[in-house]
Amino acid sequence: MTRAVVIGAGIAGLAAAAAVSPFFDGVVVFDKDDLPTGPRPRKGTAQDTQVHILLKGGEIWLERLLPGTRAALLAAGAVEVRQAEDVSMWERDAWQAMRDLGHSQLMMSRPAYEHALRRQVMALDKVEFRDRTAVDALPKDTDLVVVATGRGDRLLGDVDVPATSLGIEVNYTSARFAKPPRFRGEGRFIGCIPLPPDDRYGLVCPVENDEWLITLCSRFDNKVPTDLEGFRARAASLPVPDIADRLAEAVPLGPFSSYRIARATWRHFERAVDRLPPRVLPIGDCISSFNPTFGQGMSVAAGHAVALREALAASKNLDDVAAAYLPRAAEVSGQAWGMAAATDLEYPRTEGERPPGFERMLQGSEAMRRAAALHPEVHLLRFEIGNMVKSSAAARSGPAARLVAKEMLRRS
What is the pLDDT of residue 90? Predict the structure, then answer.
């Protein structure tokens, strides 16, 4: 095998380049943007000024693909947030317990994540970057093409595959802030996620340079303000004061930016492998794009890339890779989709089919949340499933699962 092409140099494209590089003599990564030499936003990443969270599972997958990634992120200024000692999370109607779960997450801005990972991939001998190069048609003079062009993918837009879609109508506004003196050095991650149908929620994410990225979110017609006074007023309307307290003296370091996501979509390429052009594979948001406020996108892309590497290692020739890769990628997408969709569908105005037994699913989720407050082992399991360290199946067996079942029976 001689040459692979990756189209798109975002997180999915970088992970894909790392995944395929051991199997080819050369890998070329194309991107239409002028890739910055530092951790700066770029035009081709529409949401890169918003909060991004690397799930623990995503970090583990990236470390498998690019050994040394964790150290590289820390060296680039990532804030290590201990779970759940450094987390203040108001969820539905109560604060989550703060206890040592034995895990930590690395938090930074999206441009900083991407810059650190791009440097890691650039250090690979076989990988070449060609920026300022738009790709308008699938290349034909190569052995494998990985399409990592994100939600707005056009290269595979004509491929007829079944899809699951939800009308979520999520909107959010973010800005980066200098901390006031009394909060300098604080590495606390704060979230406020009220009980549906209340559609207001907010996040305070510590990032590099001892700064904050703060996002306020809503759904449907309840738009988040884009001015400082309105932004502070919206934070003050939340059921707990922690976000508003930090915003009261924080100084914005740039403009407020807003984003709207109308639909979440999962394209089931695994059900239509033969409809893809030969030796052309999608990855990341080209396959599944979720409600981004769950912070799953970067981690799912990393999981897809690990699935791609495993498929290349297991296949006898390149014509077999799609059939090996796409079902593996679908497993990664499926876990993330299940978690995000379960919450999205709690909002009555969300468009989409509620699965059979949906109410029972919500009862199980609520029982796990209550049990997590009482039992550290359930709290740990809930974190590991939510962060894609373990599969959702882990909730169905073992001591922690029995505690959840007991809680469910107690409230039935």
Answer: 97
pLDDT band at 412 (very low <50, low <70, confident <90, very high): low
Residue 218, strand partner residues: 171
Say which amino acid occupies 12.
A
Q: Cα 36 from chain centroid? A: 22
- Hey, where are the domains in the chain? 3-45+54-79+109-163+262-342, 165-259, 358-411
- Tell me the pTM: 0.96
Q: How, if at all, do strands 211-219 and 201-207 pair? A: antiparallel
Map tokens 């894909």 to a residue.
16
Q: Are 18 and 66 in contact (CB under 8 A)?
A: yes
Q: Which fold has domain 165-259?
A: D-Amino Acid Oxidase; Chain A, domain 2 (3.30.9)
Whether a cis peptide bond, with omega within 30° of 0, leads into 401 is no
Judge: domain 3-45+54-79+109-163+262-342, CATH 3.40.50.970.
Answer: no
Per residue in 247-303, pLDDT tens?
Answer: 999 999 999 999 999 999 999 999 999 999 999 999 999 999 999 888 999 999 999
Q: Tokens standing for 110? A: 């999206």
N-to-C CA span, the chain: 59
User: Where do the H-state alpha helices sit in 143-289?
Assistant: 228-236, 242-247
Please tell me the distance from the alpha carbon of residue 209 to that of residue 185, in angstroms, as a whole number. Answer: 10
Is residue 193 within 8 A of residue 90, CB to CB? The reply is yes
Is residue 153 within 8 Å of residue 10, measured between CB atoms? no
- The three-state (H, E, C) secondary structure of 66-134, written as one string: CCCHHHHHHHCCCEEEEECCCEEEEEECEECCCCCCCEEEEECCHHHHHHHHHHHHHCCCCEEEECCCC
Contacts 24+ apart (CB under 8 A), 310-315: 312/19, 312/20, 312/23, 313/23
